[in-house]
Amino acid sequence: MGLGCRFRRAVVTAIMNLFLFFWSLITLWGILIFLRYRWRKMEEEEQAMYEMVKKIIAVVQDHYKEWERNLERYPYVGIFHVRDSLIPPQSR
């Protein structure tokens, strides 16, 4: 095996190793970006859920206060009534 052939092989091997390294780096970077996006989405969904729970509690408390003032017939409120008062018909 000649010196030129060995040199060419060494260069090709080095280039392939660099290519694999950068390809792995790009893949890991993409996975990191995807995971950050997914974590942010999960956090937003969790925050939206907490906001909806706060709204539900407020509706139930308001209904109970109205019942205490004898404006409502029953001390409880139906699930569907709460849903209908919080979510517009287009979004259901």
Automatic annotation (TrEMBL):
* Keyword Acetylation among record annotations: no
Q: For this chain's UniProt record, which GO biological process terms are given?
A: negative regulation of BMP signaling pathway; nuclear envelope organization
Alphabetically, the GO molecular function entries are: chromatin DNA binding
Pfam families found in the cross-reference section: MSC (PF09402)
Keywords (alphabetical) are:
Membrane, Nucleus, Phosphoprotein, Transmembrane, Transmembrane helix
Q: What positions does the domain Man1/Src1-like C-terminal occupy?
A: 1-87
Q: Where in the cell is it found?
A: Nucleus inner membrane
Gene3D superfamilies associated with the record: MAN1, winged-helix domain
Read off the InterPro entries from this record. INM_ESCRT-Associated (IPR052277), Man1/Src1-like_C (IPR018996), MAN1_winged_helix_dom (IPR041885)
Q: Name one GO cellular component term.
A: nuclear inner membrane
Which protein, by its recorded name, is this?
LEMD2 protein
Q: From the record, give the transmembrane residue ranges.
A: 12-35
